Amino acid sequence: xxxxxxxxxxxxxxxxxxxxxxxxxxxxxxxxxxxxxLGRRDGKTLEQQISDAKAKLDGFNLNPDTPVMERxxxxxxxxxxxxxxxKSPTGVPITSEVSYRMWVSAQLxxxxxxxxxxxxxxxxxxxxxxxxxxxDRVWQGIxxxxxxxxxxxxxxxxVTVAVKFNDWTEATWGTRFFYTTGASTTGVHGxxxxxxxxxxxLTLPTLSLILISYAGYHMTQRTLLLDNISADYVRxxxxxxxxxxxxxxxxxxxxxxxxxATSVAFSIPAVFTGAIMTETIFAWNGMGRYxxxxxxxxxxxGVVAVAAFGAVTTAIGAVLADMxxxxxxxxxxxS
Length: 335
What we know:
Oligomer: single chain
Low-confidence stretches: none
C-alpha cells in the first residue's frame, strides 16, 4: 500500500508540474496586465500610459517586452528556491493571497461538503429501505425541489430567516447571533470566543451549500442502494438469519457507498473554486472569488497559482478516492 501511494503521489506530482507550467504559458498568451493601467484620465497619451505600465510591470516580472522564456524561468526559480509565486499587476504577493484564501474556503467548503454528504447519504439509506412508502416519496419531493433552487435564492431565504432570528435574539437578550457577511470578526481573542465567532459566521453559508447539494447525494445513494438490496450476497445474508436492516447496513451499504465516496473525493477541487456565488453573497474572500478576480484583473501569476491549487486538490481527491475504495471494498487488492 505504501509503495502504491508513493508511486501515485509521484505520478500526480509530475502531472501538477506539467499542468502548472502549461497554464503559465497560456495565461501569458491570453492575459494582458498592461490593460489594467490604460484608460486613466491622467492627461497622458496612450503611448505614455503603456510605457509607464510596462515600467511598473517590469518589477513584477510581468513586462510583455521581456522574452517569455526569461519571465518563465524567473517565475520558476522563485517558486523552487523561495516558494514565491510572483506578484499581481498591482504588486500584491500571490503566495500570501492564496495562503489566506485557501483556509477561508476550507472552512466553508469542507464543512458544507461533509455535512451535505452525511445528510444526503443518511436520507438515501433511509428512503431506500422504505421504497415507495410515504417517507420515501416525501423526501424525494423535498430533494427534487431543493435541487432546483438556485444558490442565490437559497441564500436569500436563509438570510431572511436568520435576520428574523437575530431581531428576536436582540430583542430578548440584546445580542445578534448570526453574521450574514464575512468570515471572522476583528478583535476577537481567546479559544472559545474565536470558535464561537467562526460558528456564527460559518452557519449561514454552510446551510446554503447543504440546502443545494445534499439532494444529489440523497438521490445517488438511494439509487445505488436499491440496486444492491436485491443482490445475491444480500439475500444470502438474510437467508442466514440476518435482519433486513442489518443486511443493508453491513453489506449493501458498504458496496453502494463506494461510488458516492469516489465522487466526493474528486469533487474537492470543483467545490473549492466553484463556491463563487456563495462567497460573493456572504462576502467570503475565498478561492472562488479570488479566481474570478485574477481573471478580471489579468493577473497571470494569480491565475497560475489558482490552477496549481486546483491541480493539487485534484491529486488529493484522487488519492483519497483510491483509499476509500480499498477501505470499503474488501475485493480490491493493491499490488
